[in-house]
Amino acid sequence: MAWDVSRRTVMSGGAVGAAVVGLGIGRSAWAKRPIKTIVIEEAEVPESRLFAETFVNSGRAAKIIRIDRSLNGLLHELAIAEGVLVGLTSDPAAMIAEQILVADGARPLLQWTHHYRKMRWEHRTEGAPALLARASTGWPTVLAHHMQDALFGDRQTAELRCESGHCSLDGKSPGMLVSWAFEVGVQQS
Amino acid sequence: MSTGMPQGVDAATFSKALDELAAIVGKEWVFVDELPLSAYRDAYSPLADGEMLPSAAVAPANMEQIQQALNVFNAYKLPIWTFGNGRNFAYGGPAPRQSGYVMFDLKRMNRILEVNEKYGYALVEPGVSYFQLHRHLRHIGSKLWVDPAAPGWGGVMGNALEHGAGYTPYGDHFVMQCGMEVVLADGQVVRTGQGAIEGSQHWQSTKHAAGPHFDGMFTQSNFGIVTKMGIWLMPEPPAYKPFMITYEREGDLAAIFDAVLPLKVNQVIPNAAVAVDLLWEVSAKTTRRHYFDGKGPIPDSIRKKIASDHGLGMWNFYAALYGPPPIIENNWKLVEEAMMSIPGAKLHLDRENDPAWDYRVQLMRGEPNMTEFSIMNWIGGGGHINFSPISAPDGKEALSQYNLIKQRCHDFGFDYIGEFLVGWRDMHHILMIMYDRADEGMRKSAYDLFGKLVDEAASAGFGEYRTHLAFMDQIAKTYKHNDGALWDLHHRLKDVLDPNGILSPGKQGIWPQAMRNQA
Hints:
Chain A: It comes from Novosphingobium indicum. Chain A is of the alpha/beta class. Chain A contains six helices and seven strands, in the order αβαβαβαββααββ. Chain A has one domain. Chain A is globular, with a radius of gyration of 16 Å. At the A-B interface, helix 3, helix 4 and strand 4 of A face helix 1, helix 2 and helix 11 of B.
């Protein structure tokens, strides 16, 4: 049995996204396979609702899992989910989802952050900075389309940061959001 | 030192040890790759990236596998870090005390071995969560409650072993624990209390037995691996009356505790009552950026606006009464007379569309939930560590602690976000230092603030009841009566019980002989 412990890459810790870095999951790995997409909607968060709605309207969502503000649903629903799980959620919800999914063997596919500061949204993503920057409060719709491209089409891997123009923050928005995708229970090629 | 290998162990030796461990637990239960090991990080760590990372993880399924694995760990002198099920966030998460340890993950051992409806207890393994036990009790039609920690995904055993708290009358989990099965470092299995009597039916009913009481020695320690634990469960009361009282001024804290002490000591208020500060309370409903986008602590004028907008006080006192309705009615008169005597107090028996009220009412009746994590939205970026001094529930002392700690928070640019939880004779003060974990400067300030608070609290005569991994050594050194005699005792026990120093080295500042000088 070979453990290859001297050659492996041991993660560098830190924020939720650390596990995503360097996985190099691209189009060739699985984009050609039909994979069920499950969207996590955090019902109290307006941006999350808009993001989920866009996935539904584009015909990509096989199922929506709605999480109320107790966040309990993350524990009950994610454990039985299978396919590609995507969400635009508050940071705590993203953290809980990551903990549960990684412990169950899921593979992180992407993780981007969206932070409202000084009257602007700052997006840290891979690709599409101009589109997001121009989108202002409608950015979750743009993000949903961009994420579909990244997951199922051409993916740009360069990390990018962009800022929107001045815009207001919805009173129900936490103002710090994470968009994420995990692959659960799908045999890797 | 390599972060990928246990200290002093080369790759070939480590690989050989992993082979032997895989032969015991199965290869699929030995983890060495980045992704599965990421589950053992402290997601909210105040430390720089790359610290406190495990070298591998091993997940045994039963007692026999634990004993066999211990043989391997002893043979290779591999340091292990035991982990049950809970996350322990704010105190270091599941992460090991030092990089390179092997995680000994017991979450496969998640059986609820017994529920005794008559005597009100459960016997559980390390992997059982509050949600799991709660669902099981409802499934079997039990009328017993669990007492969950605020995040319901926590482990029943792990939280009790860490002296965690809940919010029902059974909120002191260390007190409510009864009877343990423990595997010592050499593989010997010990049952505590009545569990040592062959065929005893009272292992989980009474703590009393002949000889010394050892259970406490296996909590917040590294003297053994607890594999079974009894936990007392509260019978569902005939009635339940939760309430919240808001107080207008920060200085009301002293009067609150002077009023609540006789109610607690005489068990008029039987549950773990809690006084929550404005920002902790409001953070389940809104975020800081909706009110203040500047650096440093929120100005008083804005705090007043927040309180007014959300119908809150500078302190928000939660508690509940339990029992037959006539008793509740009688006790309520005493509570109302004492707690409403403070000028400006406002009573709330229900609050519409208030997630903070909803989750606390659930917790006080033993319903696990995850809502408290939503308060991490306050700053954004979710980082937090809890500074937790403990003392007697005295009004003057509470106010003195509050003023000292709040001032230090402000000195370091943080808001005070805290709560005081009152047990029978104790007061847990929980300061949540929140920071954006992507902001290195803020993370470092949080770390520096914590270290300063430890020393200042000790100078004022306060010790912490629980702490983050990174501060275990510092806090251990504050227990310095008679030249640190208590930790000397811990170390003498450690050397006898675990001579190879394999069990969770450094846990709570207790180090094996070979590693003691580096601590």
